[in-house]
Amino acid sequence: MIPQFDLKKEYALLENEIQGKLNEVFSKTNFIGGDNVQSIEENIANYIGVKYAISCNSGTDALHFALKSFGIGKGDEVITTPRTFIATASTIALLKAKPIFADVDINSGCITAKNIEPLITKRTRAISVVHLGGWPADMQSICELAKAYDLKVIEDCSQAHGARILINGDWRSVGTFGDVSNFSFYFGHHMTTIEGGMICTNDDN
Length: 205
Known about the structure:
By secondary structure, the chain is α/β, with parallel strands linked by helices. 33% of the residues are buried. Helix 3 crosses helix 4 (87-94). It has helices at 7-28, 34-48, 59-69, 87-94, 113-116, 139-148, and strands spanning 52-56, 77-80, 98-101, 124-130, 152-156, 164-167, 170-173, 180-184, 197-201. The chain is globular and about 55 Å long. Strands 1-9-8-5-4-2-3 form a seven-stranded mixed sheet, with helices on both faces. The protein contains six helices and nine strands, in the order ααβαβαβαβαβββββ.
């Protein structure tokens, strides 16, 4: 079997840089918060192009906090994709809401506005989009649909760090289209730590 990735080889390429940064963290004993965390929050916000990036312990918690911030709860429905990690649905269920699965596009593997719209009901509160494997969903169409039905949009960019979408001649980063977006730094993703997550938004609230 051909392995998907080789962490030992990846680490060997960056060993000196990683060890240097680890020594800085240990010397300051900034294991939670501190200037290292503030720095990555600022860098990610600037890189993506949003006002705020807020760190948390995992991409799963980032999803949970996003849903909770919209007041989603018992009796509500959130339309999402079946082609994803379990956290997409489990965070919805954790709040006693119901995940509603839209079919995915055969080419991108992402949900589409065309497949989402027939599933919208009076109980629908949000659309949770997942950019899987670095392939972005058609966010322009999905956001236009969400606006027409007054729905919130959550973008899960856990497997799409750095992906961009061409809109009217300009490249725009995933994570800037929805009301809120989340990123995961799980070791199997594009941008990694041992564990960690980030919530990004332009919403002052």
